[in-house]
Design brief:
mainly alpha; 6 helices
Length: about 180
């Protein structure tokens, strides 16, 4: 519990510093993801491979949810939610509550990263499945980065890109779980 509070506080400070002090808002999500991976590996003592898998899956899933809420909010309120102060905080709160409920359901159903081995002295043997997962996550991260850069100003209509991103994530997760037999 104390580790989670420390990690959350540290990552919140990094987020604030990158966005408001350093004015690095465009690349902040990528730096934050790297910090999240390192924090999970160091503070929670997961192997770097597993911390990368968990971090990218959660980070990108949260990003997809926020994009979905952003598109939905823009459609419902007929305004740019990202630039409206009150609606922006409503978007953040709704995203957090949704993720909390998803996490609670995953915990109750006892599913998730059951295959993750905990401890500092874990040795990873790279099988075809693990290499496939690395390739899937790497390509998904590249796709997410591409979509993020498009959404941050280069393209005004991102609904089709979001749909494509969600379809790719579902396909990759299906192929992974089919391959691992889960």
């Amino acid at each position: 519990m104390y580790e989670a509070i420390f990690a959350s506080s540290l990552l919140t400070f990094v987020s604030y510093f990158l966005r408001f002090v350093s004015q690095l808002e465009v690349i902040a999500p990528f730096i934050q993801l790297a910090c999240l991976i390192i924090t999970i590996a160091v503070v929670f003592r997961f192997h770097f491979y597993y911390s990368t898998v968990m971090s990218i899956t959660g980070y990108v899933g949260y990003g997809v949810l926020q994009m979905l809420y952003l598109i939905l909010g823009n459609w419902i309120f007929s305004t740019d939610v990202a630039t409206h102060d009150v609606l922006k905080f409503f978007l953040q709160g709704t995203s957090v509550v949704t993720i909390f409920l998803i996490g609670w359901i995953i915990d109750r159903k006892d599913v998730g990263f059951d295959y993750v081995i905990y401890g500092k002295s874990v040795t990873i043997r790279f099988s075809k499945t693990k290499l496939y997962l690395i390739g899937a996550i790497s390509s998904f991260l590249a796709l997410f980065g591409f979509v993020y850069l498009l959404v941050s100003g280069l393209v005004s209509d991102n609904g089709l890109m979001l749909l494509f991103l969600v379809a790719v994530q579902i396909f990759m997760l299906y192929k992974f779980f089919k391959k691992t037999g889960e």
